[in-house]
Amino acid sequence: MREQRKGISTILGALFFISIMFSAIVPMQLVMQQADNIRERKIHDSNNLDLLRKNEQIEVYPIPHLTLDLLNVSIINLSEYPVHFERVWVNDTSYTVDVTANSLETVTIGDLPLSPLEGGVYEVRIITERGNVFVSEIGAISYSGGEWISETFGFRFIFPSRPGKGARGNDWLNEVRVSISQGGEYVYSNYTMYWAISASEGFFELDASGAYDIDVYIWCRNPNRWDQIYDVQHSITYPDGDPIIELKYAIDGEELVLE
Length: 259
What we know:
By secondary structure, the protein is an alpha+beta fold. It has one helix spanning 2-54, and strands spanning 58-64, 70-77, 83-90, 93-101, 106-113, 121-122, 124-128, 133-135, 141-144, 147-150, 153-159, 172-182, 185-194, 200-206, 210-220, 225-236, 244-252, 255-258. It folds into three domains: 1-54; 58-150, Immunoglobulin-like; 153-258, Immunoglobulin-like, CATH 2.60.40. The protein has a four-stranded antiparallel sheet, with no helix packed on it.
């Protein structure tokens, strides 16, 4: 009987020991697994943030007020997702902002105080929530003789995705020619752009503001010919207007029209 009790106590002791081991090991394993999950999630979030940061595409255009000591900053979000902006720098002066631009949206950060000095040169940068820094597309702006001067002027042509041959209800081909003249003098004469299957664009840089005549032709077939799709005069009046004017086309039935 004593031996039987001794055997039972041994078994109970073993079971008690095993239960203690399980009560210690299982929670430890759960904690370690949870820690691994947290670590993997942090790695995933970090990689995702790096990818989003890498794919941010922002264009920045400073537009100073003509008569007041104020600066507006126009921002175009070319990314596929919203971008939040936290800070604007003008040279060494920082402005805290809280502005979000959705995909393909243009927003304006306005009325930033700026007291320009004669001969002053101002470089504008903007910082996103993800830590990217984007500088002005038109370079530094300068103040001289009571006027603002931009480093860059021009026209940007943006075409949508070109329909495939089987989807076209017209005779368009993929070659576009752009001519830009001022006062009868050509700045660009029959400059060739190729309209791609994906969205495509071309930038035509100019030396100064002013009025420009723009002609755009597209090459067609049946019969082969050049069809004029644009013949308009545009004036660049920076800083009263944008230094870079966008001409964004859309397909309307069998016509290419400006949006």
